[in-house]
Specification:
Blueprint: H1 3-15, H2 32-46, H3 50-63, H4 68-80, H5 84-98, H6 103-115, H7 118-128, H8 138-149, H9 152-157, H10 166-182, H11 186-199, H12 204-211, H13 223-229, H14 240-257, H15 261-274, H16 279-290, H17 296-309, H18 314-326, H19 330-343, H20 348-360, H21 364-377, H22 385-396, H23 402-411, H24 415-430, H25 432-439, H26 442-452
C-alpha cells in the first residue's frame, strides 16, 4: 500500500470514528455495542453531561479497545475535565495511527504548555511546523513558545539559508517570517513572507500564511512595489528566470488582494506570455478566469494545461475539480478531488471538495465522511467551506446538532468557543443556502445555475 493510500485510509477512518487499532479484529469492525456507546457519548456531550460522556466512551473502549475515534474523544473529554495526565496518554497512543497531520500532537503541545513543559511543547510544535506537516496554525504557536524560552534567535539562524525544493524553501521562508514577527522585526518579517509567496505563489497554504502579515489588508500597501524592486530569495537550483516568474506571480496575487484587478490581470497575462510552460502561471491564470463570467471553459483549459506541464500538482487537480463542480460535472469533480488527495493526502481543501462533489451527487453519508476528514486535517478551516458543508450535510441527514460537538472535540473548545460555534450553526441553519441543501443540495443548485450560464 502506498503512503498516500495508507494515509488516506487512516484519515477517513479516524474521521468516522472507525479507526482500526492493534487490538481490533476484522470480525469486530462496526461492533453494534461499541457504536451504541459512542452514540450515547455524543448525546451526553450535546447535553453537557461530562461524567456520563466519559463513562460511555470508556464502555465503548471496553467493547472495542482499538476504536481510535472513541479514544480520541475520551482524551479530549478528560483534558476538558482537567485530567491532563490520562488525556496525554490517550493522545500519545494515537500518534502512530493518525499519521502526519495529527490533531493529537497539537493537543499534546497544548497540554505541555499548560504544564510548563517548554522543551516538550517546542518539540511537538516543531514537528507540526515541519515541511512534511505544514501546519499553518503551529507557526505562531511555535514562535511564541520559542520567545518564552529565549530560543528565537537560534531558531531563526537555522532558517537563514534556503535549501530543498521550492515548496520546502517557501515553507521555511514563511516559518522565518513568523519568527521575525515574534522578535518585533516587522519589516524583515514581511520581506520573508513575500519571499515565501514568490517561491510558491500557487500554494493556498502559503497564501493564507502570507495574508497573516497584511494587517487586515492595511499592511498590503507597498507590497507590489516591494516585489518590483526587491530580490526574492532563490531556491537551491533555481534560475534567475524562476525567480522572475515567482516575483511577477506574487505581484499578481498581491494586486488581487488589494482589489487592483486590472493591474493583477496585466501581471498574469505578462507572465503567461513570458513563461507559457510554467504550471504556476497556468494555475493562477485558471483561478483568475474562474471568476470572470463566461470564461469557465477557458479556466478549465488552463488548469488542464497546468496538469499537462506538472502532472503531480495537487493544487491544479483541486482547481480543476472546483471548476468541474461549478459546471455540474459531479463525477469529474470527484475524480479530480481523489487525484489531489492521492498527490497530497494531507490536503484538507481536497477532502472538502470531495465532500461537495458527493453532496451534489446526492450521497450525504459519504459527503459527511469527506467533510469530517477535511476538518480532522484542518480543524480551524479558515475558508469555512468544510464547516458549511458539514452543517449542510448534517442538516440534510436530520442531525444538525452534531456539528459544533464534532468541532469542539477537535479544537478543545472552551464554553465560549462552543457558544460561538453554536451561533455559527444557527446562522447557517437559517440561511437560504442551507434550506436548499436540506431539500436537495446547495452545491447542486449553484452548479445548475452555473451550467445554465454557459457551462457544458
Amino acid at each position: 500500500m502506498s503512503r498516500a493510500v495508507a494515509t488516506l485510509a487512516v484519515v477517513l477512518a479516524c474521521a468516522t470514528a472507525e479507526l482500526a487499532g492493534p487490538a481490533r479484529s476484522a470480525s469486530r469492525i462496526g461492533d453494534p455495542a461499541a457504536s451504541q456507546w459512542r452514540r450515547q457519548a455524543l448525546e451526553h456531550r450535546i447535553r453537557g453531561e461530562k461524567e456520563q460522556e466519559i463513562a460511555a466512551l470508556r464502555a465503548a473502549l471496553q467493547v472495542l479497545p482499538g476504536d481510535g475515534g472513541a479514544r480520541f474523544a475520551l482524551a479530549v473529554a478528560l483534558c476538558e475535565r482537567g485530567e491532563a495526565g490520562e488525556a496525554a496518554g490517550g493522545f500519545e497512543s494515537l500518534l502512530d495511527q493518525e499519521g502526519l497531520r495529527s490533531p493529537s500532537l497539537a493537543h499534546l503541545a497544548w497540554i505541555d504548555r499548560a504544564a510548563g513543559r517548554a522543551p516538550q511543547e517546542i518539540d511537538r510544535l516543531r514537528r507540526l511546523a515541519s515541511e512534511e506537516r505544514r501546519d499553518l496554525l503551529a507557526l505562531p504557536d511555535l514562535a511564541a513558545a520559542l520567545r518564552r524560552s529565549g530560543g528565537l534567535e537560534e531558531a531563526l539562524a537555522n532558517e537563514r539559508a534556503p535549501r530543498g525544493r521550492p515548496r520546502d524553501a517557501s515553507w521555511r521562508a514563511l516559518r522565518a517570517a513568523f519568527l521575525l514577527d515574534a522578535l518585533g522585526r516587522d519589516a524583515e518579517a514581511r520581506s520573508r513572507a513575500l519571499d515565501a509567496l514568490a517561491l510558491d505563489p500557487a500554494s493556498p497554504v502559503i497564501r493564507r500564511g502570507v495574508r497573516w502579515f497584511s494587517d487586515g489588508g492595511r499592511g498590503l500597501q507597498g507590497w507590489a512595489r516591494a516585489l518590483d524592486r526587491a530580490p526574492v530569495a532563490a531556491s537551491p537550483g533555481g534560475s534567475a528566470e524562476d525567480a522572475g516568474v515567482g516575483r511577477l506571480l506574487a505581484r499578481h496575487v498581491v494586486l488581487g488582494w488589494q482589489g487592483r484587478h486590472a493591474e493583477a490581470w496585466a501581471a498574469i497575462e505578462k507572465a503567461a506570455a513570458a513563461w507559457p510552460a510554467s504550471a504556476d502561471v497556468r494555475l493562477l491564470r485558471a483561478e483568475w478566469l474562474a471568476g470572470v463570467p463566461g470564461r469557465r471553459d477557458d479556466a478549465i483549459a488552463e488548469a488542464s494545461r497546468a496538469l499537462a506541464i506538472e502532472p503531480g500538482l495537487a493544487e491544479a487537480y483541486e482547481a480543476l475539480g472546483r471548476l468541474q463542480l461549478s459546471a455540474g460535472r459531479w463525477r469529474e469533480a470527484e475524480s479530480a478531488a481523489g487525484a489531489a488527495i492521492g498527490q497530497d493526502p494531507l490536503d484538507a481543501p481536497a477532502y472538502s471538495l470531495l465532500g461537495c462533489a458527493r453532496l451534489a451527487a446526492g450521497a450525504p453519508d459519504t459527503a459527511l465522511v469527506a467533510f469530517r476528514s477535511a476538518l480532522f486535517l484542518d480543524p480551524h478551516d479558515a475558508p469555512g467551506e468544510a464547516r458549511r458543508g458539514l452543517y449542510a450535510t448534517l442538516a440534510r441527514l436530520g442531525r444538525p446538532q452534531e456539528g459544533p460537538v464534532f468541532l469542539s472535540s477537535l479544537l478543545l473548545s472552551d464554553a465560549e468557543a462552543l457558544a460561538r460555534e453554536r451561533e455559527f450553526i444557527r446562522r447557517v441553519m437559517a440561511s437560504p443556502e442551507t434550506r436548499i441543501a436540506m431539500d436537495g443540495s446547495m452545491m447542486a443548485s449553484q452548479a445548475r445555475q452555473g451550467a445554465r450560464g454557459g457551462g457544458r
